[in-house]
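Consider the following assembly input.
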Amino acid sequence: MRIVALVLLAAYCLAPFLWQVVTSLKPAAELVSLPPLLPSRLTAEHYVAIFAGHPLARLIANSAIVAVGTTALALAVGALAAYAASVLRMRGRGAILGVVLAISMFPPIATVSPLFLLLNALGLRDTLAALVLTYSTFSLPLAVWLLASFFDALPRELYVAARVDGCSAFGALWRVVLPLAAPGILAAALLVFIFAWNEFLFALSFTATEASRTLPVGIALFPGLHEVPYGEIAAASVVATLPVVALAFAFQRRIVEGLTAGAVKG
Amino acid sequence: MQAERERPWRYLAPAAFLLAIVTAYPLAHVAWLSLERRSLLDPGPPRFTGLDNYLRLAADERFWNALGNTLYFVGASVALELVLGLAFALAVQRPFRGRAALYGVILLPWAVPTAVSARMWEWMYEAEIGVLNYLLGTQVNWLGSPAWALNAAILMDVWKSTPFVALLLVAALQGIPRELYHAAAIDGASRWTVLRRITLPLLAPVILVALIFRTIDAFRVFDSIYVLTGGGPANSTETLSIYAYKVLFQSLEFGYGSALAVSVFVLVALTAGVYVFLLRKIVQ
C-alpha cells in the first residue's frame, strides 16, 4: 500500500520530465502523431539542431555567468549582513530580519518598471551585469535568513575565543565562522544558484538580444516559423534542466535543509 | 563586550545599499509612476495626473477579470497543493531504503525552471498530438478553450509546487514526538483520530507557514502562464501580473502599468499581514 503510494509519487514528479526526454530523442516524423508512445529509434537530430541552428551555447554561457555571479555576490554580501545580525548581535536584529523578510515577499512585477528605467539610465539594459545586480538583491533576503540561522547554531565561545586570541572581527568571520558554517553556506549557495538559473520575469524584461538573454527566456521565446518545433524545444529543455537536476540529486539533503530551515524554525 | 569596536553596521552596509537601490527605491518610484501619465511611445514629458490611473483601474473590466483569475488561481492551486502535499508527506515521513533518491525525485519539479516546465506542459497539453489526451482517451482542448485553460495552468502549478509543501511538512512531521503516537496506539485510537487529534494540530504552525509561502507566490504568478498561454484564450488566463506586464512592456504605458503593479503589491502585502496576524495567534 505504501509502496504503491511512493511509486505513484515518484511517477507524478518524474513523468513530465521523462516525456520531454523521450520527445527530445524521437525522430521528427514520429512527433506528429500518437501512437507510438515510444520512438522506433533514438535520434540526436534535435540536439544537433539546437546547437547548430540556434545560439543555445551562448544562452547557456549567459545563464551560467549570471547564476555564478549572483551566487558569489549574494553570498558575500549576505554573509556579512548575517554576521552582523547573528554573531555580532547587532541591536535591532529582529527589526532587520523582519525588514529583510518583508522585502523577500515583494512581487517582482511591482518593481520591474522602475528598475527598467533605472537600468536604462545607467546604460545597463541588455547586459549580464543588470541581471546579476537584480538577482543578487532579490536573493539576498534568502541568503541572510539562512546564513543567520546557521550562524546562530554555532557555539558563541568559538567566536569569543578567536577575538581573545587577537583575531579582528573580520578575521573571526573569515577564519572561524565561515569554515564552521560551510554546510549552511553550501545550502544557501544552492538555493541562490537555482533561483538565478531559473528566474524569468526580470530576464524577459531587461534583456533584448543574445548578448544577455538567459536560457529560460530563450526557451520560452523559441522561434518557430510555421509550426512549433517541439523536438528542438524538448532537447533545449532537457539541456536547461540537467544542471539543476544534477544539483537536486547530488545535494538533495542540503537543499531540503535550506528549504525547510527558515520555515520550520521561524 | 567589544560591541563598540566591532561596529556591526559596517557589515550590514553592503546589503542595506543593494536593498535600498534595487528594492526600496524602485518601490517608492513605482508608487510615483502610478500617479503619472507616462508612455514610452509618447515623446513628451510625463504628466502628473494624481489618482487618474487608479480611477481608470476601478472602471477597467479587464482589471477585474484579471483579479478574479488571480484569486481563482490562488485559491484552487494553494488548496490542492496543501492537501496533496500533506498526503505525500504522510507517505514518505517514515524512513525506508531509497528515501534519499526519492527526495531527489521530489525536488525535480521544484528545481526545473518554471518557464521550461511550462513548455513541457504545453507539449503534453497539445490538443491533437499531446500525450495527455492520448492517455486519458479524451479530446479536450486544454489550452485553447477558455473553460479549461486556467485549470490547466493550475494543474501545472500544483505539479511544480506540491513537492515544496510536502518537504516542509515532512520536516515538521519528524519533529512530532513518537511517544504521542505510541500513547494513542495504546489507547486504541483509529488512524483518522490520530491524524485529526495529534498530527494536524501539531502541524498547524508549519501548515500556516507553507500557506504563506504558497499564497504569496501564487499571487505573483507570471512565468508559467506567460509561457503556457500568454494570458489567452480571450484573457481567460490573464492574471494581474500578466496584465500589468502587457501594459508595461507591450503597450509601454508605464503610468497605468505601474498602477496595476502597485495593486499586486497591495494585495500581497494585505495577504501577508493577515497571515502574520494568524501565525502570531497560533504560536501564542
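Strands of chain B lie at 36-37, 47-48. Ask yourself how this observation constrains the way the partners meet.
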